[in-house]
Amino acid sequence: MLSMYNLSEITVSKAPLVTELNDLLKDKNTVALVDENVAKIYAGLFKDVWNKIILIRAGEGAKSLVYTEIVIQQLLELNIDRSSNLIAVGGGVTCDLTGFIASTIFRGINFSFIPTTLLAQVDAAIGGKNGVNFNGYKNVIGTLQHPDLIHININFLNTLSDIEFTSGMAEVIKHACIHSFGYFEFLKRNAAEIKEKNPEILLEMVRQSVEIKAQIVAKDPKEIGGRKILNYGHTYGHAIETHLNIPHGFAVSMGIIVANELAEKQTALSEKEQLEIKNLLRQFGLPTDLSSLEFNALKNKISKDKKRIQSKIDFILLEEIGSPKIKAIDLCDLP
User: What SUPFAM superfamilies does the entry give (predicted)?
Assistant: First the structure.
């Protein structure tokens, strides 16, 4: 069990799902917001609590103010009150939406996450960022409120699609790049077993990524300083994601390559380490070719990024693997 300095309690497990879900959902004041695909795959796990479940639309389209209103109306029809507890069971979209609703309805009620995708387990569910998209811009409306509990069970990864698993690996590799050359080597050394979803290796990988992110967030819960290093690959990544309409991790992978090319000039990241990172991304099937990108269109999207301060935006650039640097770069100096 981990604790983010009283921000959230985090558990990482490989115990049978049915036992854990029943324990977490049995409280009479709990309502579960469950991704519709998860509900189909694991219908048997929810058979005794269907009257306390709201199905959440799968996909990024659920992160809108219009859809938020629909879910809030359903919650009010279930007669929730300030003593209620919401539990998100799903990927990053379900966690983002649940956290946003819980931190605003009745001016805030308790909530917890049971993330079911690799991306959500190692990244999206941890850190207190909750929000929805607006007019094509990601996460521009939201709150910073940490869940009481984040319960991670790697057994959910057994039914994850190859695309979803690959997408999540971009965040895992990001953690290694910004924090630990040793973890980077662990991923290289165990790549085959990770792709085969060896449970012991997966448990260790998820645990290490969770610890890395939790430590960074605990030191800077409101993202005013060092926590910004978690945005490595994400400035261009978010722009690429909405411009090309590709999975988040695939876009982050391409964003990492752009950031590394900037780092070669700005922080002297070596070509050798750039190649090591590119090869690890490729090893897990993530894209690294930038030839399809329209950089003028991407620059326009970045100019609307919520992290921009006047004409500059902070980029996370590596000096070497495991050693990130926050550097403000003028928009006119971007490729």
Answer: Dehydroquinate synthase-like (SSF56796)
